[in-house]
Amino acid sequence: MQRMEWSDVRAFLLLLETGNLRDAGKRLGVDRSTVSRRLSELERALGTRLFARTRDGLKPTAAAGRLRPLAERMANDAAEFEQQARASEARAVGTVRVATTEAIATFLVDRGLLATVEHQPDLRIELIAGNAPVDLLRGDADMAVRVSPLRHESLRVRRVARLPIALFASASYVERRGRPATPSALRGHDVLVPGGDLKQLPEARWLESRPGVRVVFRTNSMPSLLSAAVSGLGIVPVATGWGDSNERLVRLQLIEGVPARTVWVVTPPITATRAAVRAVADRVSNVLSRL
After folding, report:
1. How many CA atoms lie within 13 A of 217 on its CB side?
2. Among the four 42, 51, 236, 254, which has the fewest Cβ within 10 Å?
3. For the domain 165-259, what is the CATH superfamily, name and number?
4. How many CB atoms lie within 10 A of CB 33?
């Protein structure tokens, strides 16, 4: 059976109202031949004749009379669908999927990202945490928060923070082992180093290459590295915004040779105009811009 199209059903309803191709075409904004084609396609799809062609115009058949209430219900449902869609665009409604690193995800939650939901009862946030890249143009997420921009001419990219990298340790570690204030003073200290897919980070290579340091822990989970540092197990390299905001960590020194980490909010064009995505993106930007 041929597939029925909503545009053909709409033409059918207007033909019932007007009784002729010309007036129905004016209402649809098309010519009479287009209306005639849509009627023929609908009749083929349904396998029945809907109008008898007479000198006085189109006369509905018994089948048209039976189908009219159903077509009118479809029209009402379509109108409600459009109304609800427009309302969703005007307010923050639905789920927003945010792809980011595990470290940023943890920080955003700790710093009040979910407060957005308190003021938007129809909004839901789904955090997709990980270091693997996502394809926003294929719909893997509605937005991304990354330390490297996802470059594509159609993506909307906004820089929200620029964070230097520093070394941190717990107060208990500093009390036991001292407070190295220069790179050369790191000799003999225990260090916690990003590993796995994070081992190529400049701060990871820089810290591991310091003469005389001992790598005691390596992981691709930044929250785990911070947890190890808070427990007093060693010195960790981390963005100043993360380290300074943790009251259990002490800043030891900036890593002068490592560029500051830039944080970007990236949205694809298909979701950038959604009120829900804009609300979450603004909240993310607000949280990170204060670092």
Report:
1. 21
2. 254
3. Periplasmic binding protein-like II (3.40.190.10)
4. 10
Question: What is the C-alpha to C-alpha distance for residues 77 and 70, in angstroms, rounded to an integer?
Answer: 11
pLDDT at 147: 84
Cα R_g (the chain), whole angstroms:
31
Nearest CA to 237 among 251, 50, 40?
251
* Stretch 139-156: mean pLDDT: 80
- CATH architecture of the domain covering 6-90: Orthogonal Bundle (1.10)
Q: In terms of CATH architecture, what is 94-160+262-289? A: 3-Layer(aba) Sandwich (3.40)
Judge contact between 216 and 191, C-beta under 8 A: yes
Q: 59-114, pLDDT tens digit by residue? A: 889 998 898 888 888 877 776 676 665 555 556 778 999 999 888 888 898 888 88
Asked if residue 123 lies in contact with residue 92, where contact means CB atoms within 8 angstroms, the answer is yes
- Residue spans of the domains in the chain: they are 6-90, 94-160+262-289, 165-259
* Cα distances (Å, whole numbers) of residue 87 to 68, 76, 90: 29, 16, 5
